Predict the structure.
Amino acid sequence: MRTLFLLLLYALPAAADPIGYDGARHLLSRTGFGVTDPEVRAFSGLDREEAVDRVLGEARREAVQPPPAFMSVAAIPYASVRALSVEERLAWQRGNFEQGMQLREWWLREMLETPSPLTERMTLFWHNHFATGAQKVRIAHLLYRQNVLLRREALGNFGALLHGITHDPAMLIYLDNAQSRRGAPNENYAREVMELFTLGEGRYSEQDIKEAARAFTGLSVDRETLDYHYRPFFHDAGAKTVFGKTGRFNAGEVLNLILARPEAAEFIAAKLWKELVSPAPDRAELARAAQVFRDSRYEVKPLVRALLLSHTFWAKENRGSLIRSPVELVVGTMRTFDIRPPSLRPAAFASALLGQNLLAPPNVKGWPGGEEWINSTTLLGRKQFVERLFRADDRMAQVLPLPWEGAGGGSDGVAMKSDPLPGPLPLRDRSPRERENAMQRRMERGLAAYAVNADSSAAAKAEDPQRLLLPVAAVSPPAEGVGRGDLVRHLVADAAYQLK
Amino acid sequence: MNRRHFLRVVTAAGAAPLVAWGEIGSPSSRGGLPAAPPRRLLILVELKGGNDGLNTVIPYADERYRQLRPRLGIERDAVLKITDTQGLHPSLARLVPLWEAKELAIVQGVGYPRPNLSHFRSIEIWDTASKSEEYLDAGWLARAFAASPSPADYAADGVIVGAAGMGPLAGAPRAVALVSPEQFLRDARLASAGGEGRTAALRHLLRVENEIVASSRKLNPGKAFDTSFPTGAFGNAVRTAAQLAANPAGIAAIRITLNGFDTHANQPGTHAALLTQLGEGLSSLRDALQEIGRWDTTTIATYAEFGRRPAQNQSNGTDHGTVAPHFVIGGKVKGGMYGATPDLARLDGSGNLAHAVDFRDYYATFLQRWWDIAPGKVLGQGRAMEFLA
């Protein structure tokens, strides 16, 4: 009885009390990209519900910026490429690569500038969930259009998102459904939609996949406009049996059969738990959140709200229990230190080198994330990244020019700083190792333009830089009485800086 | 005690351990490793995405092969015939001399009962050597090295080349991932050993950091070879594997990866290019190992999550299948055909082949014959095959 009383005393008022600086830091780092001292202070006086509702209230359905410039010119469709000369084809490839880079920069800019970092975090979550890769899709216009869809429903409705992505040209190409036809349908989309997008492995039969694949035939892409296009001649209109129900199902009806399964809400809720709350879901709290999700007919906001107000989310032992993704680390570091360079290409290269090449997940399962973000290669890369930001002195500018850049690329430190990013990269012509090296070099050079002075940086001005920069105490405590700049450099090199 | 006071106490108590663990700086020690004899090297080559076995080792004399693959089948005249009934894909010409030297074993029909057709689940089954319905955390090589640690002076039990997941070495305490020895050594100065973590995530970070420090002390910069390596990502991985094989401090296992075998659509050109990379890569690896005198102490073996379906699909590609043939090469390999030729007359309900060799028997061969580790403890099951001397 006494224990129960104490528990109530602990649990109830805590939720209504101000979350304080550490609580605000926790919420903002889990729902955004890094934290800044002013925004943490602005949230610290709110209670849990006020703070969570304010984060959710800022959600957007569209980007702040206008579309990337390349969207004003129509894409050259795959069908026309066959008729091109060898040089024209190469130019097409280069154009796609360049536009893909521009789209990455555009998205990173949105992450930096948006008033709703949660919107971009969720857009990234869905990009990872409905993973689609530029390696296969190639045309940046299609990836941009998918990105718009992901953002529209990022905190919108999962059912609408699932229907949208099933008819999305980039996805239709990525998982081969555009070519799937009756008689011998391609099972790729049918398998992944159940295994990875909605139910999870083992919650369907091989027969369900074969039958669903028949229902998805006909969903295709127009050869000229690259818009979604239905091909009745490809479609198998016969009767199918999915999850024991039989009918002449089309794609939409099969999706609704999937959404009617309780496993779908549980699967999405569990995945989002691991994104926002902790590596191992609490079963009871997760079941409650999944129920909220189902009751709201797959509205995402109530699900996120339930997760962010769970007891586990606020538990002290849960601070720093998640590993920041490369994009979170790169964009988060830039936000925390108020770095706003004219070009974000080095940031795009940096996250790619750390294992998260935006728009190019390793496969349809997306980035595995969690502890798999960290191995010896990527951990050293992360340490290098932050070290470079604070040590971007003339040493950086002395990197020799790449062999194919000629004298124009310049090893002159002054020229480098005024023009750190030479024009379009002919990386596609190079071997992968050359490409990787070139990416590394360009990142190193580009980061020189990102340099911050640790002493006068935004984070150094915080009342307690350690409480701003780290979710838990530093593994190796900073020496007493060190200067602000050394303190900041010490803290970002600490293993705890990789956590959120 | 009023409410606010109580809260302060709780908060302070909650915060106390944060300070305490932050101050502990004892470097994790790895004392007590027994002195063990040097270990022979196993290089695993992952064919990621699921290689199409029937167009790799081709049953060219089987009529059913033509029926199942009217467009996708390799022309009989183009097949590199190595037996009366079977031959290699024309892009694997570089493997023919190895076959003729009896240094290439082809193990056919490798798979497992109740096969799972998901890439992700099936590679997990292969990496952890679990049963189809069993979920294990540690990789099979991690378990092998836990049962039988490599000598203490080794640079690492195993190295994953490239930045992907740790695969069969997941959970191994002495495993690192790197792209090349030079880059690893250049960057390792940023790592520092020691520290303890309160969350699992932090403990993982510190484990990786400690391993970087330990390995960097025993790793030499990459050797320059006379052997020339193919260009491209796989050629670079092969070069790194050869450099690691030349490292004075030992390494017991290396994993390299060739990506892109998930050929659902327009397979022929893609698959030919992949097999060219594989053949050239393996052949140059042989040359490099001979150059450093390690051909007789190294075995190279391929693996993948599954093979592909015997019948082609409507997109001129192949969907997920079950079994595949795998290549084992090395100076101590007993060349020839092992396992069983695919029986295209007997396909299961999904149109797939039944396995002839359990992949745990394949693994058991390396454990027992290469490293003298009892397979039972590591794999739960598995009997060594004959393809290694």
Summary: Residues 142 and 172 of chain B are 4 Å apart (CA to CA). The two ends of chain B are 76 Å apart (CA to CA).
